[in-house]
């Protein structure tokens, strides 16, 4: 009897051991199988995101299926922290000092504010990306681009550049939308020179183009006050528009140190004093300029002229002009010819602005954010943010997608995806400015309508055939030296704005400004850059 009991006891011990072993193996297998499953069995985390006008894109979050899918898939709940175009930079720098930065946020420091970029890294205000990005293959491929590698500090990346277009795609980043119907009414031909453009803008302001017998129209209004730098594309120093250093008199200098800057300032002063430029251009914020154009208060709008930018203007236009077809009423023009008769088109790096991560972001939250960025940079992610849900927003016919969204009867274009999923304006732009569809004719026609797509295509072809790309040496632009990095604190556009609205001599005022820049290390920066350029054999 004792032996029998002992045998049973031994059998029970063996079975218990086997069950424990099998259970442990099963858990290990589940863990290994789930290691590739995005955030498997993890709790939802709240992620604060600072982005331009982001609050608007989350207004309909309870019914926004696109946002719900992204937040479910990546187990993150976005908390929007609004930034405006007027003060985003100052606001974020203030939050950095007070340790109130969002978890992830957008700002443009690279190439424009190296001093803040380096200080945030040195002071530990922003955290680095993992050195090994192989877990995020799309992100890793993007970060390995030649024009991104120089952004490392101590062998690490501290931000993710926001992917933009190639050199050709950037050509429509600057231009002018004008009222073609007003030109025709006033009998004004298409301008080419500065004097002709000035006369056009002045006519819009002075000759009652809307025929209401009131003095209530203006000429050119820039989309933002800072965009007056585009006017320098019509001078001998087009690099003022993209910040590229220039090789002048045998050495590399920042564009604002060029002897040709005064020429551009004088042109802007003429536009302002003669009533051709919006008298309130220095106070423009938010959507002010687009509103003025859409409401028929301005005859020309300076800024982006790509199809998505035109569509945003059209959306407002239709609100104020239900009986006027936008495409029939406007004309897209380049910046005027410079004094040598050359036209220039805009260019910059393959990215514009960057996303940074607060030092308070822990590893788990960082991992989920990077997974989201990796998806956003994938073809699947870009397509999702562009087309929406298959079977709901589009169908597939062979190798083509056919959009099934409702059509706008007036324009013939499909309604913008953001009318259904407001969050798409944030989701598609947080990792990349979605410009990859610029050359897909079929898609453009579906998204924007035949007429608008045609206007954009005509403008693009004109730029490619007639305009020279702004001469830009990225090795010099992305070069980092102690004095050069500090130059980014110089806000020369603010100084130029003061000169434009002043009555004093522009040349003297700019000369005084240059002396103050020299006190801030301008000459030392020029020396350092040229010494380093000589070492690297850059000419």
Number of helices: 22
Class computed from helices, strands and strand pairing: alpha/beta
Q: Sheet bearing the most strands, described?
A: 5 strands, mixed
The assembly state of the depicted protein chains is: single chain
Categorize the overall geometry.
globular
The fraction of residues assigned to DSSP E strands is 5-15%
Which bin fits the share of residues in helices? 40-55%
Q: Roughly how many Å apart are the termini?
A: 99 Å
Give start-end ranges of low-pLDDT stretches: 1-40
Could you tell me the mean pLDDT? 88
Topology of this structure?
Elements: H1 2-34, E1 45-52, H2 54-57, H3 65-73, E2 76-83, H4 88-97, E3 104-107, H5 114-122, H6 137-143, E4 160-163, E5 175-179, H7 180-186, H8 194-206, E6 218-222, E7 246-248, E8 251-253, H9 261-273, H10 288-294, E9 298-303, H11 307-320, H12 326-329, E10 330-333, E11 343-345, E12 351-357, H13 363-376, H14 379-387, E13 394-397, E14 400-403, H15 424-431, H16 441-448, H17 450-466, E15 467-469, H18 474-477, H19 482-487, H20 492-501, H21 506-519, H22 522-536
Parallel strand pairs: 1-2, 1-3, 6-9, 11-15
Antiparallel strand pairs: 3-12, 4-12, 5-9, 5-10, 7-8, 13-14
Helix pairs in contact: 6-13, 9-20, 10-11, 16-17, 20-21
List keywords for this structure.
single chain, 539 residues, alpha/beta, 5-stranded mixed β-sheet, 4-stranded mixed β-sheet, 22 helices, 15 strands, globular, disordered N terminus
Structure report:
With 539 residues, this protein is of the alpha/beta class. It is 44% helix and 13% strand. It has 22 helices and 15 strands. The strands form five sheets. It has a five-stranded mixed sheet. Strands 6-9-5-10 form a four-stranded mixed sheet. The chain has a two-stranded antiparallel sheet with strand order 7-8. Strand 13 (394-397) and strand 14 (400-403) form a beta hairpin. The radius of gyration is 28 Å and the shape is globular. Residues 1-40 have low confidence and may be disordered.
């Amino acid at each position: 009897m004792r032996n029998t009991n002992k045998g049973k006891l031994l059998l029970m011990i063996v079975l218990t051991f086997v069950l424990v072993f099998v259970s442990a193996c099963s858990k290990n297998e589940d863990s290994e199988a789930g290691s590739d499953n995005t955030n498997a069995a993890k709790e939802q985390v709240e992620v604060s995101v600072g982005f331009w006008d982001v609050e608007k894109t989350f207004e309909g979050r309870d019914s926004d299926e696109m946002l719900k899918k992204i937040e479910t898939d990546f187990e993150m709940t976005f908390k929007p922290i609004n930034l405006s175009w007027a003060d985003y930079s100052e606001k974020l720098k203030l939050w950095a000092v007070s340790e109130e930065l969002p978890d992830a946020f957008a700002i443009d420091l690279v190439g424009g504010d190296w001093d803040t970029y380096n200080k945030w890294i040195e002071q530990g205000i922003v955290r680095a990306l993992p050195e090994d990005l192989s877990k995020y293959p799309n992100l890793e491929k993007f970060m390995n681009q030649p024009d991104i590698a120089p952004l490392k500090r101590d062998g690490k990346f501290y931000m993710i550049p926001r992917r933009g277009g190639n050199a050709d795609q950037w050509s429509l980043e600057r231009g002018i939308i004008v009222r073609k119907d007003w030109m025709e009414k006033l009998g004004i031909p298409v301008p080419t020179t500065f004097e002709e453009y000035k006369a056009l803008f002045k006519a819009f302001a002075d000759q009652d183009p809307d025929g209401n017998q009131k003095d209530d129209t203006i000429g050119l209004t820039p989309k933002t006050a800072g965009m007056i730098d585009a006017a320098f594309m019509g001078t001998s120093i087009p690099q003022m528009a993209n910040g590229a250093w220039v090789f002048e008199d045998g050495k590399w200098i920042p564009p604002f140190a060029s002897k040709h800057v005064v020429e551009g300032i004088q042109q802007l002063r003429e536009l302002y004093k003669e009533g051709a430029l919006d008298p309130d251009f220095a106070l423009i914020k938010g959507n002010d300029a687009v509103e003025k154009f859409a409401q028929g208060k301005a005859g020309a709008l300076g800024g982006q002229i790509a199809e998505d930018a035109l569509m945003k203007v059209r959306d407002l236009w239709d609100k104020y002009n239900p009986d006027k077809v936008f495409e029939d009423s406007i004309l897209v023009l380049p910046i005027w010819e410079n004094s040598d008769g050359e036209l220039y088109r805009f260019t910059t790096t393959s990215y514009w602005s960057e996303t940074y991560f607060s030092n308070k972001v822990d590893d788990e939250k960082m991992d989920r954010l990077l997974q989201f960025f990796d998806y956003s940079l994938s073809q699947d992610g870009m397509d999702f943010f562009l087309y929406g849900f298959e079977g709901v927003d589009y169908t597939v016919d062979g190798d083509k997608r056919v959009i099934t969204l409702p059509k706008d009867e007036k324009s013939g274009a499909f309604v913008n995806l953001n009318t259904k999923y407001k969050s798409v304006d944030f989701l598609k732009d947080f990792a990349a400015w979605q410009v990859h569809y610029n050359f897909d004719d079929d898609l453009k026609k579906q998204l924007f309508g035949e007429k608008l797509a045609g206007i954009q295509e005509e403008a693009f072809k004109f730029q490619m055939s007639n305009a020279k790309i702004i001469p830009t040496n990225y090795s010099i632009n992305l070069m980092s030296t102690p004095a050069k990095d500090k130059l980014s604190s110089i806000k020369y556009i603010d100084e130029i704005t003061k000169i434009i609205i002043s009555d004093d001599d522009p040349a003297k005022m700019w000369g005084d400004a240059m002396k103050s820049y020299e006190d801030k290390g301008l000459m030392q920066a020029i020396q350092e850059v040229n010494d380093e350029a000589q070492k690297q054999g850059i000419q």
